[in-house]
From TrEMBL:
GO terms for molecular function: structural constituent of ribosome. Keywords: Ribonucleoprotein, Ribosomal protein. SUPFAM superfamilies: Zn-binding ribosomal proteins (SSF57829). This is Large ribosomal subunit protein bL32. It comes from Anatilimnocola aggregata. Coiled coil: none annotated.
Length: 60
């Protein structure tokens, strides 16, 4: 079984993990009620998704 002869330095490890940082979530605006929602997710306020009402809300 292959085992490293020497340990990697902290800078070398950091270079490998340079792309592991967290990224901001993709937000879009609901075309019906214009609240910000996550992409590809039903709007929590009005239940609207992909041009139709998926979840009936109590407000309407």
């Amino acid at each position: 079984m292959a085992v490293p002869k020497r340990r990697h330095s902290n800078s070398r490890t950091g270079k490998r993990r340079a792309h592991h940082a967290k990224k901001a979530k993709q937000l879009s605006f609901c075309p019906k009620c214009s609240t910000s929602t996550l992409q590809h997710v039903v709007c929590e306020k009005c239940g609207y998704y992909m041009g139709r009402v998926i979840v009936e809300s109590e407000e309407t």
